[in-house]
Amino acid sequence: xxxxxxxxxxxxxxxxxxxxxxxxxxxxxxxxxxxxxxxxxxxxxxxxxxxxxxxxxxxxxxxxxxxxxxxxxxxxxxxxxxxxxxxxxxxxxxxxxxxxxxxxxxxxxxxxxxxxxxxxxxxxxxxxxxxxxxxxxxxxxxxxxxxx
Length: 148
Known about the structure:
Number of domains: 2
CATH class of the largest domain: Alpha Beta
Number of strands: 8
Strand content: 35-45%
Order of helices and strands: EHEEEEHEEE
CATH superfamily of the largest domain: 2,3-Dihydroxybiphenyl 1,2-Dioxygenase, domain 1
Helix content: 10-25%
Shape: globular
CATH topology of the largest domain: 2,3-Dihydroxybiphenyl 1,2-Dioxygenase, domain 1
Strand order of the largest sheet: 1-4-3-2
């Protein structure tokens, strides 16, 4: 089993160009106003449709990919930084009652994405502790509303 997500985008060509760079793979299919990325690591079926008149681009709180190690977070982060895609880094952050290392980025339609690793689950009682932030130049997103 693997997750599948399909989003609506304003400009299919611009989004395909962005995600091709971001994921490091070309779409498996790119036909007219439809594109599909078949990612292997992490395993993810991701597609998009160009919005038609009267239908707006997708609006979600945020999207995310959980990876298996901090090294994997850093590998993906370096890739985005090398591509000059702005990121917001949060190391050793308390989010969603879990201790995480992560970074955030924003796609051409303004969707916030996180790539994260969970070190440990935290107690499910009390208020969530304040999160530590290290904001990169040209920060990618406002995680005050983005954290799970």
